[in-house]
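Could you help me review a protein record that somebody else here produced? What it holds is a sequence and that sequence's fold in token form. I need someone to confirm that the token line plausibly describes how this chain folds. Take the sequence as given and treat only the tokens as open to question. This is what I was given:
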Amino acid sequence: MTAIEQTEAARPRGTRLPRRARRNQLLGAAQEVFVAQGYHAAAMDDIAERAGVSKPVLYQHFPGKLDLYLALLDQHCEALLQAVRTALASTTDNKQRVRATMDAYFVYVEDDGGAFRLVFESDLTNEPAVRERVDKVTHECAEAICDVIAEDTGLSRAESMLLASGLGGLAQVVARSWLHSDRSVPRDQAVQLLTSLAWRGIAGFPLHGSEQQS
């Protein structure tokens, strides 16, 4: 009897997980395997073993490895987008908005599960379905930031989107760089440094309707 079969046999009768709970369990196991091994090296056998289920159970929920990866990617892209939206809505003070948004990216990459690697450092970026999702969440995060910039500055949508893409890209790249430097600078300090840099740029655009008196 294999280790997986022993695990299944040892599970008390009547403890079968509801479908949603089982799906979440499988996604959690898949995340651990994908983050540790990368997509190409990971095997469905590894994921099933990590989850403590048989392969048929895994295939009941996900027809193949790519389906499983994409489901996980969707989950974590949505988490990033919601974090950015929450940060932007957390205050009406624009400097604090910048700080909250920068911090959202730092918190995202710092998560112990390493989910950001699936979004920003995947070894499957040549797969169209993966590239589409990563591009989509990058664009949607920029759009959320763009909405605030356009409303507050009166700049055109196109101009606001350029600035928003710059801010989002800055936050993402610097947060990842900070993490890979073994967090040599405390997170609060790193966020404050990045906020100061970003704010000095974006604050140069006056608030809409606040023309200076001559």
Observations:
- The mean pLDDT is 89.
